């Protein structure tokens, strides 16, 4: 399973890229707005300079024509830009039309497996089930990943990648990989947490203490 970073913060992207683990980046309007004063196009271009992999940029239109127009514009910014389109009927129209232009899409805000099946049929490159937000609603988010992976695997015509989104903690990363997700997009703090373990710290301390007390 590949790891993407879910942020528009360039410092976080630069640092995570230096760990050698990043295969791509996802952004959304909330994450872009959090970077006060940053221009959308410039931010995406800067991310593309830091990470050599798919960079998701989200459309804001509610109608298919607007999504298609935005998608064509964003895709011209860099060959690695993937167009994020919401899981709606207008979104399906936009996904299939953008696919005809050879523009790759990431169908976002997916909350049930039927949306994922239709998005794949429309030609989505990536489907993004939001597991943390499903958990928040009182339903197990990981079950959604399992259902989508199972449905996609049974259909040899589907090559859409399953991207676990809305990840809240390291256990979500582990369970996404076990469930067969192709990608997990993680907030920076969750990646840092994933590499932290008290027994690792204690082991390092012990090794150093033993080394320093040798005769
Ligand atoms: C994915 O592409 C989204 O940007 C993201 O994972 C949403 O996560 P949230 O539920 O923490 O906002």
TrEMBL record:
Q: Does Cytoplasm count among this protein's keywords?
A: yes
Q: Which GO terms describe its cellular component?
A: cytoplasm
Q: Which InterPro entries does the protein's record reference? A: Aldolase_TIM, TAL/FSA, Transaldolase_3B/F6P_aldolase, Transaldolase_AS, TSA/FSA_arc/bac
Keywords attached to this Swiss-Prot or TrEMBL record, sorted alphabetically, are: Cytoplasm, Schiff base
Q: In which compartments does the protein localize?
A: Cytoplasm
Q: Which GO terms describe its biological process?
A: carbohydrate metabolic process
Q: Which organism is it from?
A: Candidatus Viridilinea mediisalina
A single Gene Ontology MF term assigned here is: aldehyde-lyase activity
Keyword Cytoplasm appears in the UniProt entry: yes
Write down the SUPFAM superfamilies for this protein, in alphabetical order.
Aldolase (SSF51569)
Q: Which residues cross the membrane?
A: none
Q: Which Pfam families match?
A: TAL_FSA
Q: Which domain of life is it from?
A: Bacteria
Instruction: State what protein this is by name.
Output: Fructose-6-phosphate aldolase
């Amino acid at each position: 399973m590949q790891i993407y970073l879910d942020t528009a913060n360039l410092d976080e992207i630069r640092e995570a890229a230096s760990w050698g683990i990043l295969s791509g980046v996802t952004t959304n309007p909330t994450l872009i707005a959090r970077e006060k004063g940053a221009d959308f196009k410039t931010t995406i271009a800067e991310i593309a300079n830091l990470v050599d992999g798919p960079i998701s940029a989200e459309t804001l239109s509610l109608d298919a024509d607007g999504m298609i127009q935005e998608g064509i514009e964003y895709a011209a910014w860099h060959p690695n830009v993937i167009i994020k389109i919401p899981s709606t009927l207008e979104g399906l129209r936009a996904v299939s039309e953008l696919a005809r232009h050879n523009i790759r899409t990431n169908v976002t805000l997916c909350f049930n497996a039927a949306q994922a099946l239709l998005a794949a049929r429309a030609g989505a490159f990536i489907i993004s089930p939001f597991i943390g937000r499903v958990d928040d609603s009182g339903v197990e988010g990981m079950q959604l990943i399992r259902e989508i992976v199972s449905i996609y695997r049974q259909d040899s015509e589907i090559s859409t990648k399953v991207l676990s989104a809305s990840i809240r903690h390291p256990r979500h990363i582990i369970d996404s990989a076990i469930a067969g997700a192709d990608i997990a997009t993680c907030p920076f703090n969750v990646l840092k947490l994933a590499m932290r373990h008290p027994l690792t710290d204690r082991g390092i301390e012990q090794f150093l203490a033993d080394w320093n007390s040798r005769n």
